Amino acid sequence: MKITAFDVNNPLEKTLMAMLASGRFPHAVILEGGNPSERLDLAKKIAAALVCSESKANAPCGICSHCKKAAADSHADIPFYTAEDKPRAFKVDAVRDIRNNAYIIPNEADKKVFILENAHTMGNEGQNAILKILEEPPSYVNFIMLCSTKSGFLPTVLSRATVFTIGEARNDADDEIRAAAVEAASAVAKAVTSIDDFELVKAAAVFEKDAKLLKASLPVIQEIFAAALREKYGASDGDTEFGTLPAELAGKLSRRALPDLIDACDKLMASLRMNANHNLMLTALCTTLRKAVSQ
Ligand SMILES: [Zn+2]
User: Fold this and answer.
1) Given this model, what pLDDT does residue 171 score?
2) What pTM does this model have?
3) How far is the centre of ligand 1, averaged over its atoms, from the C-alpha of 21 (Å)?
């Protein structure tokens, strides 16, 4: 396959590009949705961008030796593991091999990028084995795990990875809930930039008696930060349902803080899926977002 630059007209690719350019790409990502070849092509593009010797804002350049090897599937630092799409097809032996391989430093690139196709077919034993390395990965390692749906992963694995969905929107809340979620999420995202901690607590108060609204709002908060990150890199959609908020946030939040906030939203969504206590979730919402901006 030919390695091409990210498509700036595709919102997901723009978000990935901005996260890569920020130099703070998550160690573990899950690509779900789309069809198998869409997932694999996108994974290869991300892997090429991570090993590319061009500046991160222009990666993958498609012409450096790293990109060329990535395109020919012959880059020594992009190990590829695959399994059939059926239960437990991704064997625990393969996971052990991945773990051993991950501790061997890269051959020629700064990074070592593991692409794991049909990773959701790992059984519990395999997932627990991969979890050990997701918890404390060597600094040079990235994992890109591909699946039709993330629902096959254990919550513990999901909590360690950032999930990107190909194709469809990130949430399916109905129009009424969506409108309420956009309003609540906008208030929270705005409050994150306030120097007064209490602003965020006040903005989150709307969720106190409404767990359903919190569930609908978390992905929207993440969408807002992703829109702000695109704004920061001049890759904005222009007119969004969030009005001028992404531009305002891009002006106030750093290139470091925005990817951290996007990642923080993923961690919060993972906690929610693990049925965390609602009051604890509210506290976690405030402290996690605060921590992401103050680092
Ligand atoms: Zn390159």
Assistant:
1) 46
2) 0.65
3) 13
